[in-house]
Amino acid sequence: MPNRHSDVLIIGAGLSGICSAYHLQEKCPDKSFLILEGRNNLGGTWDLFKYPGIRSDSDMTTLGYRFRPWVGEQQIADASAIKEYINATAEEADIKKHIVYNTLVIKAEWSSDKKNWLVFTKNAETGETMEYSCSFLLTCCGYYNYKKGYTPEFKNLENYKGKFIHPQQWPEDLDYKGKTVTIIGSGATAITLVPAMAKGGAKHVTMLQRSPSYYVIMPKTDPSISKLSRFISEKRAYSIVRWRNILIGKYFYKISKSFPNFSKKILIKQVRKTLPEGYDIEKHFTPKYNPWDQRVCIVPDNDFFISIKEGSASVLTEKISQFTEKGIQLESGEEIISDIVVSATGLDLIMAGGIEFHVDGQRIEAKNHFAYKSGVMLNNIPNLAAISGYTNASWTLKADLSAEFVCRLINHMDKNAYQKAVPIFQSDQEARPFIENFSSGYIMRSSGKFPSQGEKQPWRINQDYKKDVRLLRHSKLDDGYLEFS
Question: With a threshold of 0.70, does the pTM exceed it?
């Protein structure tokens, strides 16, 4: 049984949790810490999802940790490779001994008198309750609900006699060989499932979308690091390629937002080149919104479009009227006969894993607070930080910087004998959405659950790695907004 009090308590043993633990060990070596993980294994997202073909939607030089280079040539990696990378990182850094598995965090209470957090947990297998305490609480839970994904209310779904599945609850024993499959959706999950199930033996896979999405085709492998390593150290080569990819992503995003019509033409032209002449690109692959109003999906090695060209998959752009016994009836009257329907319709987002927070006996809701320093902390909530990522770049880029900032903050508190740090918001700014200029359904559905951001720093969410390097790694801690006592 671990000591139930620690200097720092990390919630979540996924990509962010292991990252935070590594930084704590390196930069705050005298601090004790525990990681509470609700599942029976580490890996987070990459342990949870089991659907065919699941892979990264970012290149691995930026999804990998800055402190532990991803040196393989596979740049769009599958879930098992990413999970093994996280596992190997934890193994090499001797982090696993700090993880307490099957421990669901239900509630956390801050006491100003005791200057600590009291954390209430439940064992996921036995239901046994337990309490932990810490001086600093660090949530690494991500944004989405691990219990369920989002499924719209489909008319007469109960009449359907086939298998209806959400990718988040994928049955590992599902046999889809020789079966007709319909995948509802057009995002990253859908375009991953289509080629994977087509290649895996499905009779035919139909991607049924209400509206098109943007896609960018890129190679699954990149030999740049291995080529550069012939002349310079592998670590240096990784750093160069990583920064190259960061800057490519940054300027692609910037150009997309500044010159949307130009970017739209480039992306649509790429799709047009890969599909047969006469294919209805306008209907199936020309979104009504601008690039990066929603996330642009990666198609590695053209696999999604190859499955369409080969005839093992097809795309339908129609609205659903209702479910029938045999499949889906469209508003046009057409019926799609399906043995299996996969609802790749998105995620259900929640803040900090749905944990209930209290400060000095008062229940607090994230939606009533402002995000400080690109969302790492919230105003009026002491000694609490949340590690999160970007919507327009790799998650780990920001997770790395956020964990570094937390370590810098803890060391500053120690140096000055402070026990409490809390951001104080000056109410001369208007509240703005936590994530701006982003119209993805999962964001819009959940906007009321998240904190606000302000109009100027340090209350802005940057969505920009270079700006966050300056803000989180180099800016003053005594900035007039972060109050110490």
Answer: yes
